[in-house]
Design goal:
Elements (H helix, E strand, L loop, with lengths): L20 E11 L3 H9 L1 H7 L6 E8 L6 E8 L5 E11 L3 E10 L2 E15 L2 E12 L4 H20 L2 E8 L3 H8 L5 H4 L6 E7 L6 E7 L5 E12 L3 E7 L6 E12 L2 E10 L2 H10 L1 H18 L1
Antiparallel strand pairs: 1-7, 2-3, 3-4, 4-5, 5-6, 6-7, 8-14, 9-10, 10-11, 11-12, 12-13, 13-14
């Protein structure tokens, strides 16, 4: 994970006591969310960006994020008046909803300060999950153990809140990933299938690229209009999309969302995830039937691809 120091836990310069310092840290959290929601919150770049900063005084900028075995994540932790802290993370093992292993190297001022092996284990059921994170730390400066305890602890507290307002929808579509991606990321076809059964889309502007947008109205069968504004922050062809959901043009933020596409023996596993802005919005969406309506949307995508 991206590990940020809190503003009062920056490491100190090396001393004569020896340059190698080792520690094994264990963090445990109980989460009122199913394992698949916790897994997506833990691994999906769009979700990680929401919870990674340990406090409001710290911001996190992701320079690179590739969540797959052999993939790399690079981020900068920024605190006013302090040098940026760089975190290089590499994914070594990913067992969806169960276990991840990654290494991370922390540096600032161009000097490596620590290296760590991070193992996360998830267990539980639909009603709740348990997360156990073990950090095997080797630091080259004083204070890194305290920094890890504070930064990881605060970040995991944020993660719990994010996971508990994360909605995950999945569907296997019997078509190659390139075909499914093409139906989603084509401005002509996306409005044709997007939305639950009986809904239609009326587009005002659409530009499906990083930095682009889709401004549209979703129209219910009874004629009710739901203004939508999607702002695209990440597009990795045939892999994933990250975007922000707003209520209407430049309206209030509704959720941070992503869609990922995985090749499964000629079929495609589509995962649609959303971190709602507040727990209240998450609960309201569930009561409104967002899970069922979202699965209907993925069903329309499957039928559209099958008929194309």
């Amino acid at each position: 994970m991206t590990r940020c120091l809190t503003e009062d836990s920056a490491p100190h310069a090396p001393t004569d006591e020896g340059r190698s310092r080792f520690a094994t840290l264990t963090f445990e959290r109980d989460v009122a969310a199913p394992p698949n929601a916790l897994w997506e919150a833990w691994t999906a770049p769009a979700a990680r960006a929401v919870w990674a900063a340990p406090s409001p005084s710290v911001s996190v900028e992701f320079l690179e994020a590739d969540t797959r075995v052999g993939g790399r994540e690079v981020s900068l932790c920024k605190v006013a008046g302090e040098p940026d802290i760089r975190c290089d993370c590499g994914w070594l093992e990913l067992q969806p909803t169960a276990r991840s292993v990654n290494y991370e190297v922390i540096s600032f001022d161009g000097v490596t300060r620590s290296a760590a092996l991070v193992t996360a284990e998830i267990s539980g059921a639909e009603e709740g999950s348990r997360l156990v994170v073990t950090v095997q730390l080797s630091s080259l400066v004083e204070g890194m153990e305290a920094g890890y305890r504070q930064g990881f602890g605060a970040g995991l507290d944020n993660l719990v809140g994010v996971a508990e307002r994360t909605m995950v929808l999945q569907r296997f579509i019997q078509a190659p990933r390139s075909v499914v991606w093409g139906a989603w990321m084509n401005p002509e076809t996306l409005p044709q299938w997007w939305g639950p059964d009986g809904f239609s889309c009326r587009t005002q502007r659409i530009n499906l690229r990083a930095g682009g947008e889709w401004l549209f109205d979703m129209i219910a069968p009874d004629g009710t209009i739901f203004p939508n504004h999607h702002l695209y922050v990440e597009v990795r062809p045939e892999e994933r999309i990250g975007y922000t959901l707003l209520w209407g043009e430049d309206g209030p933020k509704h959720a941070d969302a992503w869609a990922s596409f995985e090749d499964r023996d000629g079929a495609t596993k589509v995962t649609l995830g959303m971190v709602f802005s507040t727990a209240a919005e998450f609960q309201q969406a569930k009561e409104f039937g967002a899970v069922e309506l979202g699965l209907q949307t993925l069903g329309k995508l499957a039928r559209f691809v099958a008929s194309s």
